[in-house]
Amino acid sequence: MSAKPVNHRAWWLVLPVVILVAFNAVIPLMTVVNYSVQETFGNNKFFFEGLTWFNQVVHSSRFHDSLLRQLMFTAIILAIEVPLGVAIALAMPRKGVWLSVCLVLMSMPLLIPWNVVGAMWNIFALPDIGLLGWSLNRLGIDYNYTQEPFAAWATLIAMDVWHWTSLVALLAYAGISAIPDAYYQAAKIDGASAWSVFRYVQLPKMKHVLTIAVLLRFMDSFNIYTEPVVLTGGGPGNATTLLSIDLVKIALGQFDLGPAAAMSLIYFLIILLLSWVFYRVMTRGEEE
Amino acid sequence: MARIQLEQLRHSYLARPAADADWALKKVNMQWDDGGAYALLGPSGCGKTTLLSIVSGLIRPSAGRVLFGDVDITDRPPDQRNIAQVFQFPVVYDTMSVFDNLAFPLRNRGVAETQVEPRVREIAALLDLEPMLAQRAAGLTADGKQKISLGRGLVRADVNVIMLDEPLTVIDPHLKWRLRSKLKELHQRIGMTMVYVTHDQNEAMTFADQVVVMHEGMVVQTGTPVELFERPRHTFVGHFIGSPGMNVLPCDVEGGVARFAGNPVPTANAADGAKRGARTELGVRPEFVRFADSGIPVRVTQVSDAGRNRIVETRHGDTVIRALLDEHAPVPADIAHVGFDPQFTRLYVDGWLAGEGDAA
């Protein structure tokens, strides 16, 4: 071993970041961990409960239902937004005025505050006075998202697709426009069909941005709260009560801090685990 | 396979070209014989890539025709031209194996799988890619990828011409010469027409039988490496090819004799016929400049070593005259006289070799 000079004073340089992360992530998370193993009846008195709350959450059918709804919601919006975003990116003009028009139009939904998106769709879809709801009913389709679970789900999904498909499209577009012309020229010379060009040139080159797009959309949709709360408030009944809405009901509605904390941690671990699975699946075979 | 003819090709990237400089390609006529090895040589922006893209069909020329054999293919798309192209940056289909990459052009053309397999193996053997056939193409080094690009052209039996657009740009220096000699060897073995685009004279000279020198959208000379060296048709060729390039000295022509700074200089080509007001210059390569007891008086300003030779830079007034001498040849100190070998000293009028003109 060579005698390398070691100087631990460099750790001080990391201190600001450690403090920042501690206050915005570690300490709040530890507070939640603390709540998750205790019971309180007020007066700031706490009793240690061990894993009781975790047990309760894992075996609660209410949690199972919310989780199932959440998984279904995320699966549906991923299945729609990713292919649709890629299709839009492929159809976008490559240069000129129309490209700018497309980019501006597509960025707009992304710039609107989430609660405003919810409010917009809430009014837009109202069966009596909203443009969408009124039109559908005039067309003879019986539509009332405040009363029918299916209509509520359809509206929720339409809203999310409207809000977030542009993100996937913009990322995919960035991936496509980074492909050098030579690839298209070589494919042309090799006699490749349009499908082959997509399958063997565009899709592989989009892989990295699509991984990011899928991860972002997965995490954001799994965390979604503001928009459905403003749109449906979780109803009708519990039809659109996704995990985050349920969590807030337990934590702030019923003020069951212990079970809510345990649920938060499980929720967090599910997102972490699924993100990891997505990442591994989409980047497999790259280490070769 | 067929002879390739380019007739009166012109191209501009602008919608309405007006000035001379608007044309990327100004009237190009050329013929590439079947099985030949050609190089398109010229600096960046001389139009060589434009010319290549016109032949491959990626660009439609503003005017003129491209003929493969007797067939006019000017309007045909690239996949109907039976050409292959290797690009500056290696193009491989990342997700496919090396085998699938090589098989891709055949499968796209509906060739039966029973014929694909032996053909791919044959080409892989030619390119030394056999051990890597099962690997993913993305994992190969730049020279391996460039071989795949070349291989995708070679697998097709119907290819008229393989075009290489500065294919060694991204290859490591120590692998360049290997790939270069591989290309040369391949050409000799399979006898396909190959057109090699480069700005590197060494690459052009070692690869090609015929070198086409381009300058500002024009073909200034087509010839063997020796012709380009010994008899440049344009001062640009003289300057661009050779190291150091040809000396180009301003001169006057009086009574059929060229004079440089008052000294008569005998030339290999006729000195008459130069129009009045035309720019007249003498071209002589440093290899043909000798020190003498009498002749053009010069001052030696710099001597540099170039391996087995010495480059001696001299000045007559402000005009630099370079001489290339053997490394043991004596170099006069300071003041001396130089003379030119009359057989290799030529007169140029407005840049073109006198008596030949701008006939390209």
Description:
The complex is a heterodimer of chains A (288) and B (360). Chain A has 288 residues and is mainly α. Chain A folds into 2 domains: 30-59 and 242-283, no CATH class; 79-239, MetI-like fold (Orthogonal Bundle). Chain A is 71% helix and 2% strand. Chain A has 12 helices and 2 strands; from the N terminus they run H-E-E-H-H-H-H-H-H-H-H-H-H-H. Chain A has a two-stranded antiparallel sheet with strand order 1-2. In chain A, helix 3 packs antiparallel against helix 9 (194-223). The longest helix of chain A has 31 residues, at 61-91. Chain B has 360 residues and is an alpha+beta fold. The mean pLDDT of chain B is 85. In chain B, the strands form 5 sheets. Chain B has a 6-stranded mixed sheet with strand order 6-7-8-3-9-10, sandwiched between helices. Chain B has a 5-stranded antiparallel sheet with strand order 16-20-17-18-19, with no helix packed on it. Chain B has a 4-stranded antiparallel sheet with strand order 2-1-4-5, covered by helices on one side. Chain B folds into 2 domains: 4-230, Rossmann fold; 244-353, Nucleic acid-binding proteins (OB fold (Dihydrolipoamide Acetyltransferase, E2P), Beta Barrel), CATH 2.40.50. Chain B is built from 8 helices and 22 strands. In chain B, 23% of the residues lie in helices and 33% in strands. Chain B has helices at 48-56, 98-108, 113-126, 142-154, 173-190, 201-207, 225-230, 235-240; strands at residues 4-11, 25-32, 37-41, 63-68, 71-72, 83-86, 161-165, 193-198, 210-215, 218-223, 247-250, 252-254, 257-260, 263-265, 280-284, 289-292, 296-306, 309-316, 319-326, 335-340, 345-349, 352-353. The A-B interface holds A 180, 182-183, 185-186, 188-193, 196, 200-201, 204-205, 285, 288 and B 56, 58, 77-79, 83-85, 87-89, 91, 93-96, 104-105, 108-109, 136, 139, 149, 152.
